[in-house]
Model the fold of this input.
Amino acid sequence: MRAQPKASHYVGGSYLESQTGTPFDSFYPATGEVIARVHTADDAVIESAISAARTGQEVWAAMPPAERGRILRKAADILREKNRELSVLETLDTGKPLQETLIADAASGADCLEYYGGLAATLTGEHIDLGGSFAYTKREPLGICFGIGAWNYPIQIACWKAAPALVCGNAMIFKPSEVTPLSALKFAEALTEAGLPDGVYNVIQGFGDVGARMVAHPDIAKVSLTGSVPTGAKVASLAGEHLKKTTLELGGKSPLIIFDDADVENAISAAINANFYSTGQICSNGTRVFVHKAIKEQFLSRLAERTSSAVLGDPLDEATNIGPLVSRQQFDKVLSYMQIGQDEGARLVCGGGSAQVDSFPEGYFVQPTVFADVRDNMRIAREEIFGPVLSVLDFGDEDEVVARANDTEFGLAAGVFTKDIQRAHRVIGKLEAGTCWINTYNLTPIEMPFGGYKKSGIGRENGHAAIEYYSQIKSIYVEMDGVEAAF
Ligand code: NAD
Done:
């Protein structure tokens, strides 16, 4: 097994094996090859992780913030030094092409560690003048945070949760998705190598039941989940029962609106990035592409032409643009939506089924697919598919397209293409989405808060905003005079 880790879990600064955990395999989606076998966390592992995190957090929170920042920045350097090795591992675990993982996974994790490492020494409270007496505030950690990952950006998600949590003085226990259990362990190794005290960052493996046990654990102060809306509802309800703080980064069905004055080639580039990058397995994807009637046919013919030039194939070949879907389950789900689109009467412009790739007969490859003449009530326009299925819907009027774009339970992201500066800001102002782009799509620099409106989530990751979700404010009133009492 070519990616077998030293052990399943990482607790207290070293690898740890479960004695009674259930074994499960990680597969290379291009071939179906088993690349690693790990075990779910049993009670002993969970309790070891909690105890290590408790000890580690005390040491960590007592360190000067500038020193904490230095360790995070060192970890960023280590991820960059090991970028190729980590990218190959991520490609094996997810099937995403190396062309992408080399720039978008460990590298974006490193950006995140560097950013929060830089913020470390700037996190301060305030002084409040009360006329003689005064108050001040302190920003304090929450304690032990529990992170739950999805499988599409495993190491990036691990970093997006760990860096802001750690910079605020918390410890973290992270459960990667059972589909992609490997890179979080390598990230934990990098943190230890950078000088992170033992126990501050721990990784445990498991399915949803391990996640739920941790959410309910009395020593967990906060839960941060990246996953689907149904899982988010379960986690929120369990966390609510125990009154835990939560951040939820969930799914979407985001609109990308292209007006008739847009630069069409750029808009097509954005639609490609918004639907086919990572084989369409991105939460913020702009899967409902609203194209103005006046440019629709021009848009569709160029989109089909450019899509036909995409290179599907060996994910480890850097020339490959599109790899397989992550799993058999995802493969079956995406194919079923390709069929549903045709059954619903959408016009198939290109793709529409599985793809045969030489030398990879067992791979979960599907064709990048474009549907046109999609109507708002079709399932392919309403439900998150999480695969390379792009739906083009046409429109004629600004108010109409805004209303239709907002007619969804999701609100993760949105994009607008137009050269009219006032229209761009006016439309973005009306869209019910947490993360928006004007004249581009799906860029998520760490400096910019990321998260959803409506059912797409609660809270924000990235930017200064994430600090609010990993710290609590203590207000302290200081009396400079006597104390009056009624009797
Ligand atoms: P999922 O909801 O199936 O699983 C996510 C994680 O939750 C996994 O680690 C899983 O083990 C865990 N889990 C499942 N049930 C649980 C429970 N009851 N309690 C605690 N944990 C539980 O999602 P997925 O299939 O891994 O990922 C795809 C989904 O994630 C898509 O909907 C996508 O939009 C979303 N996503 C969102 C973002 C974002 O930032 N908004 C980013 C990536 C993916």
Q: What stands out?
A: The chain has two domains: 9-251+456-474, 255-438. The longest strand covers residues 134-141. The chain is about 40% helix and 20% strand.
